[in-house]
Amino acid sequence: MKKRTKWILLSILILLLVIFGLHRFYIFIQQDLWQGEKAAMERAKAEAGIVEVDKVWKSVWDEVCWVVEGKNEAGEDSVVWLLKDKEPTVKLLSEGVSESQIRDIIHNNFLQIDIVRLVPGIYEGEEVWQLFYKENAHHYYRFFKFSDGTPLTEVFTLPNR
Fold this sequence. Notes:
By secondary structure, the chain is α+β, with helices and mostly antiparallel strands. Helix content is 35%, strand content 42%. It has helices at 3-48, 99-109, and strands at residues 50-60, 64-72, 77-83, 89-92, 114-123, 126-135, 138-145, 151-158.
């Protein structure tokens, strides 16, 4: 075999090993999140009567909160907030503001912001939408009530570097 062919085969082998290693690293990093999502879905089905799951979010503020959106046994869209060692809070989506509705509220009231992340969560014991956004080179957290979409008064600014 020629020297050039050996180098090409060796390069391909090294590239495949690097790709395999990156793939395994990605799986290792994401495994906890995937297990948490699965546990949240199972808990929502067992304790809150969800029969079909549409979305799962993880929200972290004072404590970790998993939020599951799906359909209940009656076929109604429901949202379930799951906190560790507490009973789940279940609300019909029609009792609150959906993700698309809260995005419209945000875009209508806050014109100059770029939404980085929007997830449902719990803030001071109340079901909320947690908004992480960028405005004028600063990052902020703001909360909106799930029930009607009104913004809470507190705004949290992250320091610039």
